[in-house]
Amino acid sequence: MTAAGIQSYAAYVPSFRLEHEELGSALTVRGGRGRRTVASFDEDTTTMGVEAARRLALGSAAPPSIHFATTAPAYVDKTNATAIHAALGLDHRGFAVDLAGSARSAVGALRAAAAGDGLAVLSDLRSGRPGSADERDGGDGAAAFRFGSGDGALAVVLAEASATAEFLDRWRAPGEQASRQWEERFGLEQYLPLVQDAVARALAAAGVEQADHVVVSSPHARTAAQVAKRFPGRTPATPLAIGYCGAADPGLRLAAVLDRAGPGETILLIVAADGADASVLRTTDAIATGRGERARAGVEAQLAGGRALRYATYLTWRGLLEREPPRRPEPDRPAAPPSARAEAWKFAFTGSRCRACGFVHVPPIRVCKRCRTVDEMDPIPLAAQPGTVATFTVDRLAFSPSPPLTNVVVDFDGGGRYTLELTDGDPSTVAIGTRVETTFRRLYTVEGVHNYFWKARPLAVGRDEDEEH
């Protein structure tokens, strides 16, 4: 038994959708119904993890640790969780670590965070060979969970159980683009006994005969379907049309259930990936507080929006289709020393406010532009501050992985003006007066170095757009 509880949670679903019909038409195969979520060209698992985590509104209650799970890390031989830590504006006191390589790392991140009142960030990009089931049935997204042992938890962990066995079901060698999978029947035969054992022990330890809600996540589609039939919840499961999202999948599915679960209800979370893990949670009376706000930003609400994507664009963004670049030189590799010196600005988007006259400077500087006061500045976080487009340019010649490049001059609410690249927006619809928010993205990658910074995004994106890119 453990007293760990989920204090807050959030999910992030990217803005773009690849319709199965579009995929089938491009490859002259039967695509079927449905669609999958697709991360933009300037998103990776780190940026999506930041997007999910910053929606938690951590405030002054900084988590002592961040545990980041993914099967598609932006870096290897470098910790990706440190960029998430910096983008959240946390100070240097704290622990940040990656759990990468397999979908089961999501369970590791959740349990590690629960043990230390930390933050679990689950994020993934799922790709496959063109025309494969992985490509069609995969999905991109992220979820974040803040754990704590104090009062106010939305859901408490009652029991956990695991079963582990070594067998070859799904694998990908380092450097390979797509995963491979053994024959499906073999995987089903290996998974089912492990799942039955783990679930039986978890339910018995929690003193629960049948959970109200059951969440099943597995890279093995037949196993997921069979497990859902064998362990139904009292409340019928709502199909989640998101595709399988790897390490982010259990987090997104759990978040979707928490969006609609009532107080005092039990949730059985089953993850079948290189073994089986079962967790039993019970919601508290606090789950009803702020439900309307959570639902508006919930998984289902985000899935309801989205912009349709052409298959050729999807292949280009995934690096599977190399297209002619713009007739401009590529940018230089970002340098480590200036990035380190400007960490608060570059990663947390922190400006400065003059104590003497209140003028907001973006980026931060030592000498006030208005009153010329020296070294009388307070840091002011701008990442959560919306703004208004004062003017903009659409550049069809500048280097961009997805031209044209649109730059917008943003006047931030509360002060401050800065020029940012526009993302997730249609250049033909941007106008003076457009309301925007900031989002953490990757500007470009040169010689294996990712240049992370902030971009502007129309406020309505992901909620009511249904445009074709």
From TrEMBL:
Residues 384-441 form the ChsH2 C-terminal OB-fold domain. GO terms for molecular function: hydroxymethylglutaryl-CoA synthase activity. SUPFAM superfamilies: Nucleic acid-binding proteins (SSF50249), Thiolase-like (SSF53901). Keywords: Acyltransferase, Transferase. It is an enzyme of class 2 (transferase). Residues 349-372 form the ChsH2 rubredoxin-like zinc ribbon domain. Its EC number is 2.3.3.10. The keyword Endoplasmic reticulum does not apply. Signal peptide: none annotated. InterPro entries: ChsH2_C, ChsH2_Znr, NA-bd_OB-fold, Thiolase-like. This is Hydroxymethylglutaryl-CoA synthase. It comes from Patulibacter medicamentivorans.
